[in-house]
Design a protein that fits this description.
This protein folds into two domains: 201 residues, no CATH class; 146 residues, Beta Barrel (Porin), CATH 2.40.160. The chain contains four helices and 19 strands. The strands form three sheets. Strands 11, 12, 13, 14, 15, 16, 17, 18 and 19 form a nine-stranded antiparallel sheet that branches. Strands 4-3-7-8-2-1-9-10 form an eight-stranded mixed sheet, with no helix packed on it. A two-stranded antiparallel ribbon has the order 5-6. The chain is elongated. It is mainly β and 386 residues long.
């Protein structure tokens, strides 16, 4: 009996040891710890708007925004960094380790300030040899990520609510102590130049502005912008553009197979990521061929011209996808030039949504005149040139 009791005690002790190693996860991110959720959500580089500034001595400043209007809340970078440096002073003794890379997360809200310190020893020993002098090197920079909050007005169940939105100021420094030597004039130039380049986008408070993305890189030392201009996006930009449009098609209309072409212009408007609206106006001639007995059995052609307006909502991840998708595509056309007896005067045609793979569409098409007289269906196969 004593043996059994002893075994039970050992089993419970073992279980307790295992339970003590269980990590409690936050329900919002079930795969991450609460610490990660507080200090590393979202991860660096994943917000929609990202601006980088190269400072003196190889240091770098990054500003990441959930939406561009948050930049209005960032008025004085120099004061912010001095406040953070004062907060870090009680821990300054740990900054003396010369060959350790650090990440410091600084999270501030209306109630308190929270800090996380991570240290990463170098992989291997790194040395610099110059003449007879040999020095051990620290290669990786220290990272200071400052989390800040703004409130954004949103609508939920037709009620206005205010939601906390994060944005970040991140420093990549040769050593965390470089934070105290960054020039206030450099920070002022960086913030002033960025706001000036953004212009009226900085004050765009519409709901759709949340889906915009902006990115730019600056060299603060030379006071020049590098790479892509402001407003040119890394993956997606909300914009409207005017482009030419060309298509060819074949359809079974009024008892005969007839080819067609379409040329015109389209206005393409970005709505959300990988979703676009197309407004298309085109001249669309249909070509009918038949044997002409009066001309000795020769094949003659009758051309019937339509002016067509087409609307398309592209929801595909890519126009190059080979997958067969439902195409949100409708059109309405009017006969402006009539030859032969294929169509009556004042004929209209319209198409309904069909199927699409890459730039090929299969859609139902219908013809009628005088309030749906002589109504006839067709099936149209269209190849769009992009």
């Amino acid at each position: 009996m004593k043996r059994i009791a002893l075994l039970l005690v050992l089993a419970v002790a073992g279980t307790g040891s295992l339970l003590s190693q269980i990590v409690i996860y936050d329900q919002a991110y079930p795969q991450s710890s609460r610490t990660e959720n507080m200090f590393n959500r979202p991860k660096p580089g994943t917000l929609r708007n990202n601006f980088n500034f190269y400072l003196h001595n190889g240091n770098r400043l990054s500003i990441e925004l959930s939406y561009i209007e948050q930049l209005q809340s960032l008025t004085n970078l120099d004061s912010l960094l001095k406040q953070v440096w004062r907060t870090l002073q009680p821990f300054s003794d740990s900054f003396n380790k010369p060959l350790v890379s650090r990440r410091i997360d600084y999270y501030q809200n209306a109630v308190d300030t929270r800090l996380r310190f991570l240290e990463y020893p170098q992989t291997g020993n790194l040395f610099r040899i110059k003449g007879t002098d040999t020095a051990q090197l620290k290669m990786e920079q220290d990272t200071l990520r400052i989390s800040l909050l703004t409130k954004r007005e949103m609508t939920s169940n037709k009620k206005k609510i205010y939601v906390d939105q994060l944005y970040f100021v991140t420093l990549y420094l040769n050593n965390i102590t470089d934070l105290s030597s960054i020039q206030g004039s450099d920070l002022e130039w960086a913030l002033t130049t960025l706001k000036a380049d953004l212009g009226r986008n900085l004050y765009n408070s519409s709901r759709n502005s949340y889906y915009n993305r902006f990115a730019a890189t600056y060299n603060v030392v030379t006071q020049k912008k590098l790479g892509a201009p402001i407003g040119e996006l890394k993956g997606y930009t909300r914009r409207t553009r005017f482009t030419p449009y060309t298509q060819v098609g074949i359809q079974y209309a009024r008892g005969a197979w007839t080819p067609s072409v379409g040329v015109g212009f389209e206005v393409v408007r970005d709505v959300y990521t990988n979703q676009k609206q197309h407004f298309i106006l085109l001249w669309e001639p249909y070509f009918f061929f038949r044997n002409n007995a009066a001309a000795g059995g020769k094949v003659t052609m009758d051309r019937n011209d339509f002016i067509t307006f087409k609307y398309k909502y592209n929801m595909f991840s890519s126009t190059n996808t080979k997958e067969l998708n439902f195409a949100t595509n409708v059109s309405l056309g009017y006969l402006v030039n009539r030859n032969g007896d294929w169509f009556e005067r004042h004929t209209f045609k319209f198409t309904l949504p069909g199927l699409q793979a890459k730039n090929i569409m299969l859609e139902p098409e219908f013809y009628f005149n005088d309030f749906f007289r002589h109504f006839s269906p067709s099936l149209k196969l269209t190849l769009v040139f992009e």
